[in-house]
Amino acid sequence: MAVALVWLYQGRGPFGVTVSDGLLGAALCAAPWLPGWRWRRVGAGDVKYAACIGLLLGWLPGLRVMLYAGVILGIMAGLAWLRSSGGSRLPMGLALSAGLLIELSGVGRYVLPQA
Asked: What is the dihedral of CA 21, 47, 96, 79, to 10 degrees?
């Protein structure tokens, strides 16, 4: 809470993101995971983590992180499906963290064009 108040006072976030871009990023990054939370396939902590990523990075880098996380989750789901016949829960936080590392390390610039 204190960090958010300082951010609002300064007008820019830790990665140079404006308040409006951060809020838009939080909404856009949390939105794809909300149906999964509603249907009890995704935990609320994962949705909040995605919103925090969008808040800190802004809307465009945040959406790239969500894209990377979605691809990683798809691979994880495919591997889980091959290994078991029942419905298993996947650690989405791991995929979000991996997507965040891809974006922050700069590896993603070889995959998607930067704005």
From this structure: -140
DSSP letter at 2 equals H
Q: What is the percent of the chain with per-residue pLDDT over 70, rounded to a whole number? A: 87
Burial class (CB in 10 A: 0-12, 13-18, 19+), 71: middle
Q: Strands (DSSP E) along 3-115, which ranges?
A: none
Beta bridge partners of 12: 18
19-30 and 59-83 helices cross at what angle (nearest 10)? 20
What's the mean pLDDT when you consider all of the chain? 84
Token representation of residue 41? 């396939």
